Amino acid sequence: MKLSHSNVRRLHPALASVLKSVGVVLTVTLLAACERPPMESVQHGYRGTGMVQIYNPRTVELNADKNIVPVALPPADDGGPKASAVFQNVKVLGDLSVGQFTRVMTAMTTWVAPKEGCVHCHNPANFADESKYTKQVSRKMIEMTQHINKDWQQHVGSTGVTCYTCHRGQNVPSDIWTKLNPPPYGANFIGDKAGQNEPSKTVGLASLPVDPFTPFLLGNEPIRVNGTTALPSGNRQSIKQAEATYSLMTHISTSLGVNCTYCHTTQSFSSWKGNPPQRLTAWHGIRMARDLNVNYMETLVEAFPAHRKGAMGDVAKLNCATCHQGAYKPLNGAPMAQDFTELGGLAKVLASNVPKQQ
Asked: 5: Cβ–Cβ under 8 A, 6 or more apart, which residues?
């Protein structure tokens, strides 16, 4: 017998009630399976200002495994002969003791090439050999790491960075970028798409320009939505420039796992007045990324082989996600660099050395 509302009414009342109850349970179960756990919100501004951070519990849980910090090797003695006096062709870190140098090399191996080991960068028959491009790149990356920890404390603070901050046990960091090779103007019926309307996770699958990195993290284009003067005298900001700015902001938000009010006040996104301190940290971070891309990554074009270059013949470069990888601070703020002062990290202050309050 076909089960319908009319047929259910003809059944025994108790059986009909059971069938209806089963139907309700199945419907609720089906709908519940379609619902995801609710978002979590944390208020960090005055009530009524909209200064709330929204967190996705599922994303936070997934990112937790990505931000586990490896155990640091025990510190090495700084006494004895220097590495440059014992090993050949040591162009960086040569002022370290042999023990310190060996410790850093061992740590770098686990951070960057845990499967390949030392031969990822070195010729096993002659460690002084320069034939592997990875050795030249690693040397430049050590210098870059020291530069970050020494000269960009406005962004990294005393937390600092190590090779692991970006690599996380991989030869190549998971979040990198190269210049795009867009089709020429008029290549399709809508003409110049200006790098928009592409399904890119970089901009949250929005219709915004998918490459906010070339103008802002390699070039020095103004990052703003509105001009600072009235038309027509000096306001040269265009809708395209505004869209590129929104594209960069979307990237930063996604990279840090935060929403706009992490850096901006809801009263005025353009004004600096009353903004959280994170906005200044982000301002320095943008300029740090630009500095590293221009003065370190781009200088390695000749060193990289063709198969490691992008469509435009450039090398891979970094953006906010390279270090942050979904966390508001890389590795959730774990101060790895404090265990590796050889890489420019600030040493931990021992409790015994802290003066007692009177």
From this structure: none
Token representation of residue 170: 């991989």
For residues 218 and 317, is the Cβ–Cβ distance under 8 A?
yes
CB atoms under 10 Å from CB of 23, counted, come to 12
Pick from 183, 250, 191, 185: nearest CA to 216? 250
Domains in the chain: ranges and CATH = 38-67 (no CATH), 68-166 (1.10.468.10), 175-324 (1.10.468.10)
129 close to 122: Cβ distance less than 8 angstroms: yes
Place of tokens 């686990």: 110
Give the tokens for residue 311. Answer: 């469509």
pLDDT tens for 248-272 read 999 999 999 998 999 998 888 888 8
Structure confidence by residue, pLDDT tens digits, 84-111: 999 999 999 999 999 999 999 999 999 9
The amino acid at 25: V
Indicate if the alpha-carbon torsion angle 196, 197, 201, 203 is positive or negative: positive
* Amino acid present at 340: F
Angle subtended by helix axes 133-151 and 278-292, to nearest 10: 150
Does this model's pTM top 0.85? My answer is no
User: How far, in Å, are 79, 94, 148, 227, 280 from residue 155 at the CA level?
Assistant: 33, 28, 9, 27, 8
SS3 track for 90-144 = CCCCCCCEHHHHHHHHHHHHHHHCCCCHHHHCCECCECCCCCCHHHHHHHHHHHH
Q: How far apart are CA 100 and CA 111, in angstroms?
A: 16
Q: Measured between alpha carbons, how far is 86 from 84 in angstroms, rounded to an integer?
A: 6
* Measured distance between the N- and C-terminal CA atoms of the chain, rounded to whole angstroms: 89
